């Protein structure tokens, strides 16, 4: 199937709309086995399922840590009531609570980051040669966060991979302008390297 086949573009654009509500910008790694046979929606569903499994594993770990903390507190309380620990009971209890709280903080899932999810999904589309879908996804992301330099980087890379130098340069200029006006910053060296050597920067 050709990359620019209109039949492939429609599902990928629809998939980008799924992400309109909400990795690093490095080049995408090699494709996973079987990715070429998947539709954009299937890739999205796999990513969502993987994220759900991670959240369930964290929730299970948090539950185990809470149970462990409750057991430790019960043992300490029993020891204090029976006079088994003397004056060190409070210090021991604080130590157990601090250790358990630290473990629970480590098991707590990080806050949702739609930009990173969008990047991972877009990079997976890139790996399978579906740059149209990745472009639609990155553009949808930039509509939500027009200062996300990683999305600009991937968008520039997609345009360059498709031989669309003018679009890549326009994307770079938009990135440079917004970063300068809003944040007073220049694009990163990575962004600059993507368009290095292009005329009329």
Q: Which residues sit in consecutive blocks of at least 5 with pLDDT less than 50? A: 1-27
For this entry, what is the oligomeric state of its chains? single chain
* Tertiary shape: elongated
Mean pLDDT: 73
Label the structural class.
Answer: mainly alpha
Main beta-sheet strand count, sense and barrel state? none
Number of strands: 0
Q: Approximately how much beta-strand content do the residues carry?
A: under 5%
> What portion of residues is helical?
over 70%
Spatial gap, N to C terminus: 35 Å
The helix/strand order is HHHHHHHH
Gyration radius, rounded: 24 Å
Number of helices: 8
Structural features, described:
The structure is a single chain. The protein is built from eight helices and no strands. 70% of the residues lie in helices and 0% in strands. It is elongated. The chain has helices at residues 6-18, 40-81, 89-107, 114-127, 131-144, 149-161, 165-183, 189-195. It starts with 5 loop residues before the first helix and ends in a 6-residue tail after the last helix. With 201 residues, the protein is mostly helical. Helix 2 (40-81) packs antiparallel against helix 3 and helix 4 packs antiparallel against helix 5.
Outline:
This protein has 201 residues and is mainly alpha-helical.
Topology:
Elements: H1 6-18, H2 40-81, H3 89-107, H4 114-127, H5 131-144, H6 149-161, H7 165-183, H8 189-195
């Amino acid at each position: 199937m050709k990359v620019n086949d209109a039949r492939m573009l429609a599902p990928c654009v629809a998939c980008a709309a799924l992400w309109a509500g909400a990795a690093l910008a490095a080049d995408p790694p090699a494709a996973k086995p079987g990715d070429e046979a998947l539709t954009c929606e299937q890739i999205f569903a796999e990513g969502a399922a993987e994220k759900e499994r991670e959240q369930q594993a964290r929730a299970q770990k948090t539950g185990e840590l809470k149970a462990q903390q409750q057991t430790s507190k019960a043992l300490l309380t029993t020891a204090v009531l029976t006079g088994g620990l003397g004056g060190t009971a409070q210090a021991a209890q604080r130590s157990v609570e601090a250790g358990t709280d630290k473990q629970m903080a480590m098991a707590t899932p990080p806050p949702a980051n739609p930009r990173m999810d969008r990047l991972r999904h877009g990079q997976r589309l890139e790996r399978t040669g579906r740059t149209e879908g990745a472009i639609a996804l990155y553009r949808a992301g930039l509509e939500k966060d027009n200062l996300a330099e990683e999305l600009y980087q991937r968008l520039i890379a997609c345009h360059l991979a498709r031989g669309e130098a003018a679009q890549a340069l326009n994307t770079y200029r938009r990135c440079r302008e917004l970063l300068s006006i809003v944040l007073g910053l220049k694009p990163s060296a990575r962004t600059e390297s993507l368009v290095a050597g292009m005329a009329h920067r």
